[in-house]
Amino acid sequence: MVESKHHRRTMDDNVSGNSSAVLEEIFYVTSRRNTYYKVRLTEKGLSLHKEHNGTAKTETIALGDIIGCRCMRSKRRNAGSCACRPGASRSQLKLVESAEIHQSQYDEHDTSAYLYIYAYTLKKTRMKGAMRRERMTITLRFRSFDKYEDNLREASRWRLAIKCLVANVPVPKNLMSPSHGNLETLIGACPGENRKLLVLLNPKSGPGRGRETFQKRIHPILSEAERPYEIHITKCPNYAREFVRTRDIYQWCGLLMVGGDGIVFEVVNGIFQRPDWEKALRELPLGVIPCGSGNGLAKSIAYAREEPYDRNPLLISALSAVKCKKTPMDLVRVETRNQILFSFLSVGWGLLADIDIESERLRAIGGQRFTVWSVARLIGLRTYKGKVSYLPCNKVPPLENGKMYCKDYPAENILSHSRSYGDELDSFYDAFGESSNELNGDNDVITENLALETQIDRRNRLGSFYSAISAKSTYFSTGSANSSYHSIGENDSAEIDTENISKNQVMYGPPSTLPALTSQLSDSWTTMQGEFIMVHAAYQTHLGQDYFFAPRARLADGVIWLLIVKAGITRSNLVQFLLGLSSGTHVTCPGVDMIPVKAFRIEPIEGTNGHITVDGEEVDYGPLQAEIFPSLASVMTP
């Protein structure tokens, strides 16, 4: 197989050479003579030292880019064909999981054990300076022995070492020795979370394609990383909130939400309706797959980790769910006259809140609804009378490297993913009970594949058989044996009673440090009174994929960024403000103030009407105050 010419992250030869190898092996390429690879697994990654006709080149796949690996065996399509004979068609060749060999009819003529290593590496795109993550599969074919079990033992040794390094746990050195022949011990020693991920999917979020998106784009990545999950489909508003509030959520290892910011809001507030909210937040990280209209949290997480989110939002967010990493995140306690809420994103009053709520009627067009309604609100501009007070934050984290504005990559109309070819290796049985052979994605994205194999000891290397590999996105096992799908009609879902949810339900969480909402504030607060175009508080960088609202915000900095636009701002400056939201330059517009605070209070004039939103959800119009609690929750990060 000809190696792809795409750029791959490389490591200096000296650095690679100084890293002690956990495992090392010589592999060959079936389609090339005089070419071999010295493959070394180190604590830094997978080093590939290529020797070809006297020339040498060393490349390294960084350990942080590897998400998983699996052992396979070739399987005959039918009893009448020999899949491994010279001249066999690739479509005649299938692979099965090692654990399935006793239930499946495998190819007894091919004793090879195949180790598939899945990585998502940073690559340069055609656009100057832009990067994206692309899928790469490295296939190591172990066939040095005459028996499949012996080859599987060698492949399993590599699998164990890779999984330990990826999970950041010690590699059991006693099992790395070739003299250790206990296959069951090698397989059983692989680290892994015994609990499943809880996936809560909102099928109506954004354009209403949540199920299809999860099936085609997220499930395969979870499968590659061997992350079992249990999926529940929400069937009405507040379903996720009640689910989290009433269930034994500790049977899962994390909460992964498929939808927009709305389902995150439900889950966060469902946690704070539990008496054990502290334990839940400490033990269960939150993840989000962006299928909504706004997707502010997903973009903020990727921006904080400097990931090329706009090139492929679903991929970057899915990688967050499989990397087993978590990062602290601030939460804000919000108090109104009638309820207490906990917010992870923003509180809004005025222009942006109006756009958010009133554009709901255009939800079918996705995120474009915000742009369309922004024009409508500019034509019919409103002002709001009231009072805004805030408690200044004296300690603001400094700018990192002097950078303030986003330098992310332009969004594309089509979410990218590696293409899928064929109808054998590329097909997977999804969690919804259907088989799918095709992934949506860019037609110019080609997945790198490197197929290597060992030679037969004391024999000449076998002829150039067709290797059991897929040229593109290969999803061999859906994890259906370990993952489960719960439809909206199941009996256990009926236990969720969303009709009787009361806004006055008990909310737990940290106690407020602020004066009562009806009390006067101390002199340490700053108060502004008059007419406002908008008041918007944010604690994440992004309110949506294209709303770079608070350029200096961090996931856990203990700061609320309060943006105030008073009445009197010119229309041209307001247009400049809205246009600058995508790049972060809106904060420099005349008439716009961005203030770092620890707490704030909004008090609209009595008898007036309008919209106030918390994380995009409308709350009662009236007095509201909020304060930040640093690092209260944790989120999954890539």
Automatic annotation (TrEMBL):
GO BP term, pick one: sphingosine biosynthetic process
Pfam families membership: DAGK_cat (PF00781), YegS_C (PF19279)
First-level EC class: transferase
Signal peptide from the UniProt entry: none
Gene Ontology cellular-component annotations: cytoplasm; endomembrane system; membrane
SUPFAM superfamilies: NAD kinase/diacylglycerol kinase-like
Keywords, sorted A to Z: ATP-binding, Kinase, Membrane, Nucleotide-binding, Transferase
EC numbers for this chain: 2.7.1.91
Sequence ranges assigned to domain DAGKc in this UniProt record: 192-338
Top-rank taxon, per record: Eukaryota
GO function terms (MF aspect): ATP binding; sphingosine kinase activity
Name used for this protein in its record: sphingosine kinase
Keyword flag Glycoprotein: no
Transmembrane segments: none
Subcellular compartments: Endomembrane system
